[in-house]
Amino acid sequence: MANQHHPEIQTVPSPIRNDDLVDDKEQPVHEEEVGLKHERDVQYDAQESEKSRTGLRRVLRRNPSYQFVRELAVMDETILDEPKVKKLEKKIFWLIVPALCIDYIFYYVDKTTLSYAALFGIREDLKLVGTKYSTLSSIFYVGWLVWAFPGNILMLKFPLAKYIAANIFLWGVFLMAQGGSKSFEDMVALRIVSGMCEAVAKPGFMAITAMWFTRIQQPIVMGLWYAAQGIGIGLGGLIGYGIGQIRAELAPWRYEFLIIGAACAAWALVMGFLVPDSPYTARGFNREEKQIIMSRKRDDYHAVEKRQFKWDQVKESILDVKTYLYFFLGLTANIPNGGTSNFGTLMTKGFGFDTLQTTLLQIPYGLCQTIIILISVYVSYKTHHMNIRTYLMAAVTVLTVVGFAMMAYGNNQASKLIGYYLTGASNAVFSLALSLVSGNVGGNTKKMIASATIFVGVAVGNIVGPYAFIAQEAPTYKTGIIVCMVSRCAEIVVILLLRLTFVIPNRSRDKKFANGDERYDPNTVSYEDHTDKQNLHFRYMS
């Protein structure tokens, strides 16, 4: 079929071999082999696998060989052994999910260190008057913004887990360096480079999740590691409370950076060793298990992750309206986040609590986030066949609007504190949003661009957000709270527009399929790196 104009794409079947995966050799393809084991056409560009795998290339190899994919195609013709699949999925879960949860704990604790440092005297010691504190909050995301696209492109060039671990190590090092800052200028420089290192974190976590888990499983897995943010908030509160008891030569805020940075760098070394870069290269799985891991994703339209940069997918991303909606989703969701993550402790203290009480009150805030995230992803999982995920996202966002309204207009301490806790529901919304990006974008280059785009929106939102919190309005920051409330309302509009971009193409493709359009050929299985628009069998989750 499609291989008439692409000689590099071969259409063959193959029996499964038991050769060692690392030493897998490409075999010559003979026309008489066609049609032996299965009736489907197999499309897969083997150009990278034709290069010899020695030395550094063996370490950096990213894509399955053509022979491996031929065998995978044969496996796709069979019914997978369900008990074996469940056993493998349990093994995958305990290999990947705890590591991502720990990653995300450090990711969030790292970002809130400045907020806790503000309670322990950094503003006084570094003379952060006027908008300087807001600038330090925002400048982190300038580095993130600068590195969002280059960092994501490099993910296609290097082993994924090792690349992320290297970035985690670097952000731990730069966090420790912030503990030694002597001036506002020192902090500005260090927070820019820290932001650059963290720019690949969430996109990387999403890429790992999409690589190992099916589209139905991804919201649950993302919800679990996103819920670890609540643990991070609680842990940050406990660390802050402990640091508040320190009476030593160094100022307490410096210990905040030094302790968390050192722990972060140490964990990065562990992650780089434990987490595999892909199912294809993972240790601890035999050849058949690796093929089962990938074959169980055959209904996701991208069972094989090919890590190559493709310019045609860049063009398609630019012309796809969903790309811009992902940006606005990231923007509207994170203008409030830029405020609450950096001014949350200051606002809580402004409700009438002292410094140590404020640190402890972040623990139930984190617990509320975790509970709401887990409930939301559970409901999403149970209703995935109904395609109501975007409606669920909009409904939970309404909770955050109510929370900000209570903070702005509540007439007592309790109502303001409850409102603050309700604003944490936003993290449940964004965890579901990330699963939409990972599950609704086909093609590795396009997926990386979509991830980078939503996180460019995240960066811009976090840059803008802190400036809505006017120093002269401390400790109530009413203008900032109202801006956050309006931004959440705009987020609901973006979510509903995204739903339209998912539902309309699905209906159109279903109609063409029902009418017998020849392009919708169920006998063609593409193992190529096709996008959601190129693969006409692709259906969006909404």
Automatic annotation (TrEMBL):
Membrane topology note: Multi-pass membrane protein
GO molecular function per UniProt: transmembrane transporter activity
Biased composition range(s): Basic and acidic residues: 17-50
Keyword hit for Ribonucleoprotein: no
Domain Major facilitator superfamily (MFS) profile: 96-508
Record keywords, A-Z: Membrane, Transmembrane, Transmembrane helix, Transport
Pfam families: MFS_1 (PF07690)
Main location: membrane
SUPFAM superfamilies per record: MFS general substrate transporter (SSF103473)
InterPro entries according to UniProt: MFS, MFS_dom, MFS_trans_sf
PROSITE patterns listed in its UniProt record: MFS
Location within or outside the cell: Membrane
Keyword Zinc: no
Location of region: Disordered: 1-50
Gene3D superfamilies: MFS general substrate transporter like domains
TM ranges: 92-109, 129-148, 160-177, 189-212, 224-243, 255-275, 323-339, 359-379, 391-411, 417-437, 449-468, 480-502
PANTHER family, sorted: ALLANTOATE TRANSPORTER, PUTATIVE (AFU_ORTHOLOGUE AFUA_1G14700)-RELATED, PERMEASE-RELATED
Name assigned to this protein: Major facilitator superfamily domain-containing protein
Natural source organism: Papiliotrema laurentii
